[in-house]
């Protein structure tokens, strides 16, 4: 079969031949892949920098996607650590780590949205006791996951959502998706009194934002849940210890390991319905898998989805 193969952590995957999969256990099923998204997690695993990377070579990347099983059902499936990912004509899934989809879903939209949308959905549902009426700051709101986080926070009942980012024109478009206010990273003191921060940035920008917000906070004894989700600005952040002593700041992470697979899987059906019904706006770009090498590092506003 054809697949995209990572043979070096220093080079993009290449399209070529790869052995066809074989189901070996009772909880394994060979499926046809219809669509699989190119996410930050996929790139990070492919270059060996993500904390969940196995370090093995060669392998087929791709952590999730829409597949058709042997009974003709469409499924959204998430893969565990495997050398055979979704960027192939076929792969092997554990049906228990999948959700059966309606027959009329758009595989491209599902494949584009589920992974980035899951980041804020699971963070608000499983990492904190989020309540309707709370105020939310999305730090790094102009990326695919961030713009979905704005929408999801509103759907969960946030009273006020502030979207923060660098690109002013992209920020302006977020008002139509539910953002009540937009700020640049230099204006995060205006978000000082939020209850929750969904942080896709980390690094130096997050440290500056945290300092500005806590300094300007009217009631530092009020809880501030800071959920670290992404790290596009750096893996480490120079936080001053006084921030933790001078406020009721509570920092937690949300991702693989901090949320159990069982809890993540439990959220997938409702999230898939939200994507399918259009409750979450999706920007997706379908691309033939054969073009993976030339599109691997493309900087796009929409989510690339590979079609085997």
Walk me through the structure.
There is one protein chain. The chain has 308 residues and is an alpha/beta fold. The chain is built from eight helices and 15 strands. The protein has helices spanning 40-46, 107-127, 144-155, 168-173, 203-216, 242-245, 261-276, 292-295, and strands at residues 2-5, 14-17, 29-37, 64-68, 74-78, 90-93, 98-100, 135-139, 160-165, 181-184, 196-199, 224-228, 249-253, 284-288, 303-307. The strands form three sheets. Strands 3, 4, 5, 6, 7, 14 and 15 form a seven-stranded mixed β-sheet that branches. Strand 4 (64-68) and strand 5 form a beta hairpin.
How do the strands and helices of this protein lay out in sequence?
Blueprint: E1 2-5, E2 14-17, E3 29-37, H1 40-46, E4 64-68, E5 74-78, E6 90-93, E7 98-100, H2 107-127, E8 135-139, H3 144-155, E9 160-165, H4 168-173, E10 181-184, E11 196-199, H5 203-216, E12 224-228, H6 242-245, E13 249-253, H7 261-276, E14 284-288, H8 292-295, E15 303-307
Parallel strand pairs: 8-9, 8-11, 9-10, 11-12, 12-13, 14-15
Antiparallel strand pairs: 1-2, 3-4, 3-6, 3-15, 4-5, 5-7
């Amino acid at each position: 079969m054809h697949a995209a193969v990572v043979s070096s952590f220093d080079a993009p995957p290449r399209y070529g031949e790869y052995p066809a999969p074989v189901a070996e256990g009772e909880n394994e099923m060979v499926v046809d892949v219809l669509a699989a998204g190119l996410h930050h997690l996929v790139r990070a695993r492919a270059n060996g920098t993500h904390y969940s990377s196995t370090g093995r070579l060669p392998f087929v990347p791709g952590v999730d996607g829409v597949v058709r099983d042997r009974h003709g059902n469409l499924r959204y499936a998430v893969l565990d650590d495997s050398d055979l990912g979704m960027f192939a004509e076929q792969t092997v899934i554990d049906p228990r780590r999948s959700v059966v989809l309606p027959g009329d879903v758009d595989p491209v939209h599902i494949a584009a949205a589920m992974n980035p949308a899951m980041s804020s959905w699971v963070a608000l549902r499983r990492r904190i006791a989020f309540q309707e009426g709370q105020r939310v700051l999305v730090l790094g709101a102009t990326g695919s996951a961030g713009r979905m986080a704005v929408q999801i926070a509103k759907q969960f009942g946030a009273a006020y959502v502030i979207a923060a980012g660098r690109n002013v024109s992209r920020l302006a478009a977020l008002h139509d998706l539910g953002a009540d206010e937009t700020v640049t990273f230099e204006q995060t003191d205006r978000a000082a009194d939020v209850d929750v921060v969904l942080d896709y940035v980390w690094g130096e920008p997050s440290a500056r934002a945290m300092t500005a917000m806590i300094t300007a906070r009217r009631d530092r004894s009020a809880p501030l849940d800071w959920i670290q989700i992404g790290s596009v600005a750096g893996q480490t952040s120079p936080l001053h210890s006084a921030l933790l002593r001078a406020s009721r700041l509570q920092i937690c992470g949300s991702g693989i390991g901090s949320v159990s697979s069982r809890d993540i899987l439990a959220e997938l059906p409702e999230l898939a319905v939200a994507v399918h019904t259009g409750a979450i706006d999706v920007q997706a770009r379908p691309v033939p898998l054969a073009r993976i090498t030339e599109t691997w590092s493309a900087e796009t506003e929409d989510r690339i989805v590979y079609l085997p």
